[in-house]
Please model this.
Amino acid sequence: MLNQSEVRSVVLARIRILLLEETDEVVTVDGTEQLHELAFNSLLLARLIISLEAEVGVDPFAREVASVADIRTANDLVTAYETAVVRFGEPVTAGEAGAA
Model:
């Protein structure tokens, strides 16, 4: 699992990768952009969350650290994952989340 200081770069890199796959354009992402301004739809956000859970090692939404409905910017997503990494030192699977 990544440490807190690595989370920001991973989240922003994953956003850039997904946008490149979708648009064939290199997009600069610094975290302040609204996800809707980056043309993120619910399917793209779901793909991002799945890939971040695999790479970061924790799902802040399964652990109720954050609500997907409250994620507006890339920085919101970074904060959710940073908080989850700090609170939970080990990965959690979807099946374990219900028991937590």
